[in-house]
Write a structure and sequence with these properties.
Strand order of the largest sheet: 3-11-10-9-8-4-7
Oligomer: single chain
Mean pLDDT: 92
Number of helices: 20
Shape: globular
Number of strands: 17
Strand content: 15-25%
Structural class: alpha/beta
Length: 473
């Protein structure tokens, strides 16, 4: 039995580890301050492990205090610390709009526009023709109105902000009617009732979870009503015994009572999803044509742009929102404007939008093409894992991002069976996450699933090399 106090005395000093070959090599590559911090943290972690073992007489003997081993750990930690906190990675999950992985990828023209504006001064708030001060919203409003048919547009930093600003401007201190079945919660604890309360509006629930009729809304209208709110339940779907009110019917009721109809579309699409074999998703322009006075949606979901909250609708209502002091709190920057403008321009030609905007290119990828790519990758990976351990299987990809929850996109992931291998699937997945570049994929029992729907063709070789490096580590 080893005394934990003796182990504490044997713990290598920081100076000793700094002179170990593994750490000295790292000192030649990275700032001394960063390497020193990594060594100190490594020593501290071992000290904590020894102290934790003091209550278990058998544990201290299992702690390896080899200076060489500790130095290698410290060097690896220093290298991890040297990487940026936000890193590009390969998404092989098959979830197209993956919130944890940054949601939508930007189209090439949007990336170029963003980079150009980031590296230069720009006409963010100046009219070049007259030299007068302008509004940053001018760069987006015309395009948004042309694509949607709206009278006016305002862009803020995300859709939660867009909903909040609309409610705070239109209904602060008054009542807003909403169906009980639309009191949704999305990621990050964004809850419609709480957003309404924070915006100063008083919630009036009508109907039931599965059924709400037009007369439910009508019965709730009174002199304190400021607006009617319709929320698209984009991240879940109720089936069976259900009833809901259309935008057209709801707008007629609202307008008969001189009330605005606010519709939160959540994801927001400009393209008819049914044309590509997907379930119907309400289009932005259809909601406006159906009578919605204000429509809000996200920029970085089905639209395929940067994070933003877009507000479209009646000129007078949008003008009031612009004057709200909170509009400046939610203001977007020049990089968002550049990327969003370039994305919107692609929608002037739907065919171009579908081919160039990554979200749409991935969603509409054909089964035949996906299977061919998977078979090619299977051949490459079979050289590494053995022919019997790698195969193309049938599966399902998801749109993700709280959009089209019913959509099941046909997938042909590459399955790597590690049941009898020297490394478990869980361990290999962890190595891939910590690799360079990091790779995120799906884990299913003792199999790793690589779904190429969300992997750009140009990164396939990079993916193969990442898997090879992780396997041989």
């Amino acid at each position: 039995m080893t005394d934990y106090r003796a182990l504490l005395r044997e713990l290598p000093a920081v100076d000793r580890l700094l002179n170990e070959p593994a750490v000295k090599k790292t000192l030649d590559q990275l700032p001394r301050r960063l390497v020193l911090q990594a060594v100190q943290e490594t020593v501290a972690s071992y000290r904590a492990a020894i102290l934790d073992s003091s209550s278990d007489p058998a544990r201290p003997g299992k702690i390896n205090l080899s200076p060489e081993k500790m130095a290698e750990e410290a060097a690896a930690l220093a290298l991890r610390k040297s990487r940026p906190g936000l890193q590009p990675l390969i998404n092989a999950t098959g979830v197209v709009i993956h919130t944890n992985l940054g949601r939508s990828l930007l189209a090439g023209p949007a990336v170029e526009a963003l980079a150009a504006v980031a590296a230069s001064y720009s006409n963010l708030e100046i009219f070049l023709e007259s030299g007068r001060r302008g509004s940053r919203q001018e760069h987006l409003e015309g395009l948004l109105c042309e694509l949607s048919g709206a009278e006016a547009a305002l862009v803020v930093n995300n859709n939660a902000a867009a909903v909040f600003l609309a409610l705070n401007t239109i209904a602060s201190g008054r009542e807003v009617i909403v169906s009980r079945g639309q009191l949704v919660e999305i990621g990050g604890s964004f809850r419609i009732p709480e957003i309404m309360a924070a915006g100063g509006a008083r919630l009036v629930e009508v109907g039931t979870t599965n059924k709400t009729y037009i007369h439910d809304y009508e019965a709730a209208v009174n002199e304190n009503t400021a607006a009617v709110l319709k929320v698209h339940t984009s991240n879940y779907h109720i089936v069976g015994f259900t009833e809901s009110v259309t935008t057209e019917d709801l707008s007629r009721l609202a307008h008969r009572n001189n009330l605005p109809l606010i519709e939160d579309l959540g994801s927001g699409v400009l393209i008819d999803t049914r044309k590509y074999g997907l379930p119907a998703e309400p289009r932005i322009q259809d909601s406006l044509a159906g009578g919605a006075d204000v429509v809000t949606f996200s920029g970085d979901k089905m639209l395929g742009g940067p994070q933003a909250g877009v507000i479209l609708g009646r000129r007078d209502l949008v003008a009031h929102m612009r004057k709200n002091q909170l509009a400046r709190v939610m203001r977007i920057d020049k990089l968002t404007i550049a990327a969003l403008e370039a994305t919107l321009r692609l929608y002037l030609d739907e065919e171009e939008a579908v081919s160039l905007i990554p979200v749409w290119r991935m969603i509409t990828a054909g089964p035949k093409s996906l299977r061919e790519r998977a078979e090619q990758m299977t051949g490459r990976l079979a050289e590494l894992f053995g022919t019997g351990n790698v195969a193309v299987v049938e599966g399902v990809s998801r749109v993700g991002g709280g959009a089209l929850p019913e959509a099941e996109l046909p997938a042909y992931p590459v399955a790597i069976d590690l049941q009898d291998g020297p490394v478990s699937a869980k361990e290999l997945a962890a190595r891939l996450r910590l690799g360079e570049p990091p790779v995120i994929l799906r884990l299913q029992q003792d199999k790793l699933l690589i779904d190429l729907r969300t992997v750009d063709r140009e990164r396939e070789e990079e993916l193969v090399q990442a898997v090879k490096k992780a396997w041989l580590a």
